[in-house]
Structures are given as C-alpha cells and as structure tokens.
Amino acid sequence: MSGRDDMTELTCDEVREMAGAFVLGALEPADEAAVRAHLDTCDDAHAEIAELGGVMPALAESVPVVEPPAGLKARIMAAAAADLEERTVAVAPSLEPAAAPAEPTPFPSADERTARRARTSTGTWILRAAAVIAIVALGAWNLLLQNQLNASQAYEQSVAAVLDVAAQPGSLTAILTPDDGTGSGLAAVAANGQVTLAMQDLAPTTGSTVYTAWAIGGDGVPVALGDFTVGSDGTASFTATTSPLASGTLLALTHEPGPGATAPTLPIVSKGVATVPA
Fold first, then answer.
1. What is the pTM of this model?
2. Read out DSSP for 95-109?
3. How many other C-beta atoms lie within 10 A of the C-beta of residue 49?
C-alpha cells in the first residue's frame, strides 16, 4: 500500500493484509501510523500481529541481515504499478467495436496428419504397444489360472465321489492311465455294479464326439457302460450302472465319433484293471 497523506481509517481486513509488513517495519510512515491508530481503537485483538511479532526474535537470530540492493524498492513499486494497470485494462469494458469472429481452424489435411504422426517418436509407440501387450498377457494369465483352479476343483469333487464308492464293502478300484500320454483318473465299482470315474487331462470333445467307457471281462468281450463329453478344462465325472463286475475286469475309455458305439474305436485312450482295494 502506498504512503498516506492523511490518517485514513483502515478496515480490519486491510490491517490483516498489512500485518506482515507492519511487523517487519516495512510500511511507509503514514501506513504504519494508520495501522497503529486502528489497533488502538479496534475491538478485534488482531492476534495475527501478535503471532507474527512472536517469531521475529527467532528470525532475527537465525537469518542474516542482507542489505537490499539499491533501487529494489523502486523496481518493485514499478512492477506493482504495471501489474495494476494491466489488470485494470483487462477488466475495463472495451469501447472498441467487437472484433470479428476468428476464422475456424481448418481440419488438418491428410498430408498434415501424416506429418504429425511422423513426428511422434518411435519410442512412444513402442511403450504403448508394450503396455497393451502386458495388459493382454496379464488378462490371459489370470484367465488361465482361473481355468486351472476350476478344473482342479471339479476333479477333486469327482475323486471324492469315487472314494465314496470305494469305501463301500465289496467294491473294486482301478487307476486309469493313458496310452497316448493324456487322460488319467480313478474308478470305483460298487458291489451292485455302479461304476464311478473321475478323469482329468482329457482332450475336449467337439461336435458329436464322445468318450465311451467299457468294461472288458475275462471273456474279452467289451461291454459299453455309457458315453460322456469333456469340456475345455479336460476333466470329467461319469457314473453308470451295469451288472456286478469281477475283480480283474479291465475298465477302458475310447474316443468315439458319436454316442451309442457297440464296439470300441481303437486306440484305447486310457485303461485300468479293477481290483479289490489293498
């Protein structure tokens, strides 16, 4: 605030704005006198001045006194005056005729768009592509883990059903192993002829294809137990009822072009011998 020629009364807000300069002793004499006059008569204690005054001793001890360069005050005042004039011009209503609307910016031509794209750095495109690949890979990995978890849970439930049958008196059990490297599992045959299988790592069935379970006794004649399909997780649970089976019966799986096969289509996918549990 500039110096005052008279003792114009200040408002509380003006005093608060001048508090820092007042405590530092940086006000013009007239402004300082106006602040003091206000403090003498104001009902507001103006605690901000007391707080600022409390830190002055510490500042005086910790901050070295530096003599300001000559002309600093004049430059500050000139800058403040210029800023004030600029703000005044900006907010004053213009008396000049309104300027014609600016011409709309033309849409870039094909050549301009090509040039702009060319200016984009190769590194930026590489980073973007890497980020997309990382996101896709992460999503695929999460999906793979979820599918593996679902398959594991499904197989565990199927095994539990097999174990329930195997625990019954007079039951037979078999471990089915693959001939071609895929398709393994467990089977249990109850005394009443109920057959329960739990399979994993089977190739998914497509179209009308199915897996057919067979029981091959001592006479070597295969008896179809039933058909089932396999989803993308490669697991399967199968239950059928047949005549009671003797120990040593071969349980086998084949991959058939359709349900209702009367003879196995070779090769056998997986097989195991049903025996009395040890």
1. 0.49
2. -SPPPPPPPPPPPPP
3. 18
Residue range 153-176: average pLDDT?
90
Q: Are 222 and 215 in contact (CB under 8 A)?
A: yes
pLDDT band at 173 (very low <50, low <70, confident <90, very high): very high
Q: What are 110's two structure tokens?
A: 């094909």
Residues of the chain with pLDDT > 70: what percent?
63
Pairwise CA distance, residues 77 & 204, whole Å: 85
Instruction: Answer yes or no: is pLDDT of 142 > 80.
Output: no
d(CA 261, CA 227): 9
Q: HSE of 68 in the Cβ direction (CA atoms, 13 Å)?
A: 8
* pLDDT of 98 strictly over 60: no
Q: Give backbone dihedrals phi and psi of 7, rounded to 5 degrees, phi first.
A: -90, 65
Residue 215 bridge partners (DSSP): 223, 251
State how far the Cα of 197 lies from the Cα of 277, in Å rounded to an integer: 16
Q: Angle at which helices 47-62 and 12-24 pack, to 10 degrees? A: 20
Q: In Å, what is the CA distance from 69 to each residue of 23, 73, 217, 259, 267?
A: 21, 9, 112, 101, 101
